[in-house]
Design brief:
The protein has 17 helices and no strands. It is mostly helical and 410 residues long.
């Protein structure tokens, strides 16, 4: 990297990568569970939620990346500087930490289920193996730098995409899938799943992480002769590519379940879906699905641990080695697996927890990027801020509705 200035302007492809790493968060095992459950139970009904969530995610991830590039600081760092009291920072950190732990639970459980499906490894042992591999990935990020980490995670992203889309290629859906693009709900259960899908799509820890990833990657932008406008143009491409991949795969998961698993008993669980896919489309497609699930768990748990470390450092000024943090946050997932809690239920509920963390990340992000005192000449245009505020309002409204339905037992 120090040679870049001497060699001239970096090639455009070199500037891509942070969004692909953050984009893994949109393809974690929680996404698989939420989208698979939605497709198997309600057909194409909630397809519009997946598409809408992906459109929201484009703007949100771009704003996060822009904040990191322009300020040279992560979203947690900027927020930590603006809290008037230590108590406020700690309270905010606690909710963000809860979200990060819910993310860890989903990702470790997903990896454990995949290892069980592929190699018949017990779930607790599979969770420990997933955690160990994620620690190796995090060690690589700290020792070899962000670019090497990006290359490895992007490779896993390719495996995820192939594993989860193979079934749709073999058995494409019919024209009736287009009906799922019409926004509507059919009862409280569909609202719960919609919140779960959005929690798995617009993920709080991805918002925090993306600003950190661009900060780390372009921390020497002045030395390397990289102007902010050029980086922002490259970032728009980076986010577009990453979310085009993530959106296509998420749609494919729901469509696969709707077309092939609707009405099949047991398909509201990952293991049941795997068995049903094998019965409907063959053992090869089922194996690819399990491999994609494993790659999803391994990549997303590393990114989640990285985000959690950045949240802690930025808000409470405590720097814990990411590998140490990985060991600590691995415990809740292993406990859940040891207690015999249904893995798919734990995954879906973890995504609901994530959906409640969205406003705490999204509202400050929109506010900060709308302030000239923070971004200077790169401040949001008025319509960007308005759209971001609209997305935040929609997500908060859905979460309040979900809370009411849950408390009333409706």
């Amino acid at each position: 990297m120090p040679k870049l200035a001497a060699l001239g302007r970096p090639r455009p492809l070199w500037l891509l990568g942070p969004a692909l790493v953050a984009g893994v968060a949109y393809l974690d095992p929680g996404n698989v569970a939420a989208n698979m459950t939605a497709g198997a139970r309600f057909g194409y009904l909630l397809l519009w939620v997946v598409v809408l969530g992906n459109l929201m995610a484009w703007l949100i991830q771009y704003l996060s990346a822009k904040l990191g590039i322009v300020t040279g600081r992560s979203l947690p760092e900027v927020l930590g500087e603006r809290f008037g009291s230590r108590a406020g920072r700690i309270a905010y950190w606690l909710q963000a930490e809860a979200v990060a732990m819910a993310t860890d639970v989903a990702e470790v459980i997903g990896g454990a289920v995949a290892l069980w499906l592929l190699f018949d490894i017990p779930l607790v042992a599979g969770g420990a193996i997933t955690g160990a591999i994620s620690m190796a990935l995090l060690w690589m990020q700290t020792r070899r730098g962000p670019k090497v980490f990006e290359v490895v995670v992007t490779g896993l992203l390719v495996v995820i995409a192939v594993g989860f889309t193979a079934g749709v290629v073999v058995a494409p859906p019919g024209a009736e899938a287009l009906g799922g693009l019409v926004p509507r709900f059919e009862g409280p259960d569909t609202v719960l799943l919609a919140a779960s899908i959005l929690g798995a799509t617009v993920m709080p820890h991805a918002i925090y992480a993306h600003s950190s990833l661009t900060r780390d990657r372009f921390q020497h932008r002045e030395r390397d002769g990289l102007a902010i406008p050029r980086l922002l143009r490259a970032t728009r491409w980076d986010v577009s590519i990453a979310l085009a991949i993530a959106g296509t795969v998420n749609v494919a998961i729901l469509v696969l379940a709707a077309a092939n698993l609707a009405g099949v008993e047991g398909t509201d669980s990952l293991e049941g879906a795997h068995a049903a896919i094998g019965a409907a489309l063959g053992a090869g497609i089922a194996t690819l699905f399990a491999v994609g699930l494993l790659a999803s768990g391994l990549a997303s748990t590393a990114v989640g641990a990285y985000a959690g470390s950045e949240i802690m450092q930025g808000l409470v000024k405590v720097r814990v080695p990411v590998t140490t943090r990985r060991l600590v946050t691995l415990v809740p997932a292993l406990v859940i697996l040891a207690l015999g809690v249904d893995p798919t239920l734990a995954l879906v509920l973890s995504q609901v927890v994530l959906s409640f963390g969205i406003p705490f990340a999204l509202v400050p992000l929109v506010w900060l990027t709308s302030r000239r005192s923070v971004l200077g000449e790169h401040v949001n245009r008025w319509w960007t801020t308005a759209l971001g505020a609209l997305f935040a309002l929609a997500l908060v409204t859905l979460n309040v509705l979900l809370l009411i339905l849950t408390l009333t037992g409706a």
